[in-house]
Amino acid sequence: MHSVLAEDVTKTFREGKDTVSVLRGASLHLERGEVVALEGPSGSGKTTFLSILGCLLGASSGRVSIAGEAISAARPALLQAVRRRHIGFVFQQFNLFPALSALENVEYALNLKGVGGPEAGRQARALLERVGMGDRMRFLPRDLSGGQKQRVAIARALVASPSVILADEPTANLDSSVAGQVLELFTELARREERSLLIVTHDPRVRRVADRVVNIVDGRIAA
Amino acid sequence: MVDLGLKTLLYDKVRFLITVSGVAFAVTLVLVQGGLFVGLLDNSTITIEKFGADLWVTSKNSPNLDFVHQFPESNLYRARSVPGIERADNLILSFMQVALPSGAEETTVVYAMEDFGDWGVPWLVSAGSTAALSSGPFVLFDESAARRFGAFEVGDYREVNGRRLRVVGKTSGAKSFTTTPLAFMDYHRAQELQPDLLSGKTSYILVKLEPGADVNAVKAELERRLPYNDVYTAKAWAARSREYWVANTGIGFNAFLTVFLGCLVGVVVVAQTLYTSTMEHLKEFGTVKAIGGSNLDIYKMLAQQASIAAVVGFVLGYVPAQLLKPVIARADLKLIIQPELTAMVFVGTVILCLLSALVSFRKVAGIDPALVFRS
Q1: Crossing angle of helices B339-365/B282-290, nearest 10°?
Q2: Which ipTM score applies to this complex?
Q3: Which of A36, A83, B203, B323 would disulfide-bridge B93, Cβ 3.0–4.6 Å?
Q4: Average pLDDT over chain A, rounded to whole?
Q5: How far apart are the first and last CA of chain B?
Q6: Tens of pLDDT along A47-57?
Q7: Confidence (pTM)
Q8: Which of B280, B284, B291 has the most A C-beta neighbours within 10 Å, making it the best mutation to test the interface with A?
């Protein structure tokens, strides 16, 4: 069974009286434990595709299933439920909550997924230990380096063991050596725990660690 | 559970301070204006409360305590014959002129009875006593008269309606709605000073019932025996008097306007700061959705922030309102912040702050999910 299956996905937006087609039949599948790099020029539809696979947006047409669950734009509650159960996100800007410590950032994500009380604290600490942030748990994001922030973000993405992790330019704001460490950690965690990892990137280092590189051009996955 | 709403609110302390300051300012404004309104209305009927009469017999269709017409004082005997009445006495209330040393004149509200002692009015005598009133041309003034009549002491003389009266005492806290100072004198002295208006006339008959007497039955019997008078319970008479001032002067509208403006200031400040904060944290709200949260989770967070701003703002607004009491008292005004007013302002503050958050709710509902990916 594919972790991610997208077939002939289209997405159109209305801009005033005009209709803009951003995705024009994009198809992609990811196997369990597979690391795929998604590349494409600016405006090619990468972010929209990522948003649809992450259940943040519904497709205009086509078929999308995540971990075997078919998703539909007509059912926003289903999108949220699938996102909550199966998807973890890592962002280019880390998107940590500045008012929360590293531990609280991870714990809050657990709370949103229904894990509360001391159990949330225990799991959050374990996740931060796994990404090598055990000694920075009480730090606020402003007191962490870029690499440390991304490690916290990875720990947060791993909350509740999602089957799919979607990463948007995770190394873009990191210097070369830190980016390498983060990628190594990222891919190692994904493969060892059999999570599918889709990384949107322009970074050639990602290409080197990915099992497969796919390109998106003009709203279609290029052959 | 991690409280993202609270932590985010407290993280930006300056913004939080601005928000609660706006709420506090509005709360102080509403409490002070509301308290002054209640204080003025309390002044307008404080004598009704302090006399402790069960029933007030007034002239027909009198609009309020101060604007009363006179009626024959002999009605008192008909009133006294009604079963169930323990005591009934005439009370004169009339405006008289006090000549000032400068040659100018000021008005005083005169309360005159044969014997104040049995009615407990005036209730605070700070110097002298009412006992001497009937034994000569004497008067008691409330201390608040000093502002209008100049400083005076027991033993001084003041000319009232052209007749020199010796001040035999001072009272405290006896005020009227119009802030006209109150004077207390003997019933017959008042009739002497205004013979055209008051000779053989009274303004009220005060009635105290026997223990266990049915107030409605006695009231009905008084109305039957005195068809050219009205009879009110003390509570109804006070309510009618207050309603008059609220409906027929600008005070009601003025109070309403200030309260409205106070609420508006509070709503605008809270709505603006919450909205600005929401706009600045849109990406964080988008992240909440991306990591598994729903719009409802974000609405709850915004509502919590609005509620915290309301509660903290209320406390910070309530304290200065209380501290203003002595300052306002120096201007001979009363600031009465009753528990009912406090509760009303508190509930209103919370509701208005929550309504202010609705603007942000709409913004959150329309968040573009792809926002989380933007740099």
Answers
A1: 70
A2: 0.89
A3: B203
A4: 91
A5: 29
A6: 899 999 999 88
A7: 0.78
A8: B291
